[in-house]
Amino acid sequence: MRRVVDEGPGEIERLIHWGMRLDRDAQGALQLAREGGHHRNRIVHADGDATGRELVRCLIARAKSIAESSHSIRLFDRCFSLDLISAGAAGTPVLGAITHHPRYGLQIIWAKATVLASGGAGQVYRETTNPKVATGDGVAMAWRAGAAIADLEFMQFHPTTLYVAGASRALLSEAIRGEGGHLVDRRGNRFMLDRHEMAELAPRDIVSRAIMEHLAETRESNVFLDVRHMNVAHSGGPAFTERFPGLAAMLKSFDLDPARDLIPVHPAAHYTIGGVWVDQHGRTNVPGLYAVGEVACNGLHGANRLASNSLLEGLVFGSRVGRAVAERADATRGPMQVVSDIRPSDKGELDLVDVRSSLRSAMWRNVGIERHGGRLSDADDMLAFWSRYSLDKIFDDLSGWEVQNLLTVASLMTRAAGWRRESRGTHFRLDCPQTDVAYAVHAMWRAGRETPILKSLTPATTR
Q1: What pTM does this model have?
Q2: Which active-site residues does the annotation give?
Q3: Which of 239, 231, 234, 223 shows the shortest CA–CA distance to 172?
Q4: Could you give the CA distance from residue 2 to residue 165 in angstroms, rounded to a whole number?
Q5: What is the C-alpha to C-alpha distance for residues 186 and 408, in angstroms, rounded to an integer?
Q6: Predicted local distance difference test score (pLDDT) of residue 463
Q7: 27: Cβ contacts below 8 Å, ≥ 6 apart
Q8: Positive or negative, the Cα torsion across 347, 352, 354, 359?
Q9: What are the residue ranges in the chain where pLDDT is below 50?
Q10: Which of 15, 126, 195, 319 has a CA-to-CA distance to 451 between 20 and 30 Å?
Q11: Would you call 379 exposed, middle or buried from its count of C-beta atoms within 10 A (0-12, 13-18, 19+)?
């Protein structure tokens, strides 16, 4: 945490120098906002709720500029990574990756250093804010290469995603509640006032669980975000449509007027807190393999990530990984034999569309916001059955590779959640509702082991 706090401002200044646009007040000063779990305004935004989109735009533009001017970067857009290249034995290095490009087909990319920056695994769940490509590919590849995978039981669920039939679960930024938006039920009752002293700005796990409990009590399908009182300028600040122009436009496409209508919302899987275990320079236990961002687990977030720390983590540790990788530029590699020997399966086949849909539904119902040992065991049985007839197959398209990765990550999540017989942060078990000091550890799982390797928590990661 100290590294992120110390190095974060410099990384933001670098982005501004590269052309990232951030919201500013009339005097040109950066506007600071507050989100869930925060006690003061400390977050910079772009267009109110489009910070991630603007960050990606800035970084891609920078990469393209370097690629065009120096040819030191080659970009393969829409390229899928099938697997890491490794000799397979424990301790052997990763030598690059096998990829598939829609234009160039299968490619072998040899590398002295390989960095996983593939994002999270939200598509494991039926309800998620994540894009369709967030299928846990990086975690699954690292697992197959022998890397340690830690803390996958901690999945953060965002309390407020747009809940409209037939529409994807669009994220409604926590900045909206930071600016004064209220959570209400169909009767207009602000139920969070009775749940937590911070009401709508309580930590995400508390708000998400409170919503699900309230829905169970009222037998409603969703709650609502009320911003009607924010649609005129107040306290010298901008009106809702000026503060969140992108969101206002998106709501309009669903015939929702934030000045008049309550906005239907529901929790959804949002951020994979666990991932590939790395040190403070992004190094995994596998030589030549690094990980950064949501695919990685460096202990920063503990068991319950604070809002907006993910982008900052990616910036700070991305810079650190870049420096660590540069040190391998002159590394030499001796001869090594890599053999691909995947035998055709003689087992029956399952419909991949059905497997994917059933997997996501089972994870949402049994390994979701509230968990129970019996349901976790049932989910493990279901995943084992689907895996038996899917992981042994050779596929030739993206959908098959993604289903295999989803099954791998879902199984790891379920195993980790079953092992952790307590409630801590985002991991809440109805049958073990108390926090147990015996589980104040990071649990690192390795292929071939039935039990995790345990690492004691530092004081900053006990939540």
Answers
A1: 0.91
A2: 204
A3: 223
A4: 43
A5: 39
A6: 39
A7: none
A8: positive
A9: 235-236, 460-463
A10: 126
A11: buried
